[in-house]
Task: structure prediction
Amino acid sequence: MTKFKQWFVLTVFLASATHVFGAKKQKIEHAPLPAKMLTAKTVYIQNESGQPAVADKAYTELKQWGRYQLVDTKEKADLVFLFTLAYSRTEHNTSDYISLYNSQTGAYTSGSVPGGSTTTTWTYTQLRVVDPNTSVTLWADERVWLRKHSATDELMDSLRQRVEEQEKAVSP
Result:
């Protein structure tokens, strides 16, 4: 390889590495939350997920946060936290790799054969923050159920971060 080619390859590599490794992660800006979410004082948890643990986790997170007072009816609430579940299914075709030995020829034959299909089901916890007076959804999000993370905890953390981020930006 000539000196020019070596220099050129090195220059391209360094430029690529600088772009990939040196690039600063751009902060994602969020659209502002409705004012009602920042001025609200009371919350009612409406659990339509069919999973008591969803409401229990939300209750625990809201108590720890201390931002909203939890009430026992929609009529007393400034906001309703409506929890539901959603499902998505994907089907995957599979194949198996096999290797066969032919004792007459002493040769191996190998290849893939269809193995059938499998279905993966994903479960999501969905949260809608609703104005109980107008039934308007003020904010919504969903998180997938994973073994090591609670989808409900992640939803509540996300909401908390958004509210606190906006309050910090507004306060002098």
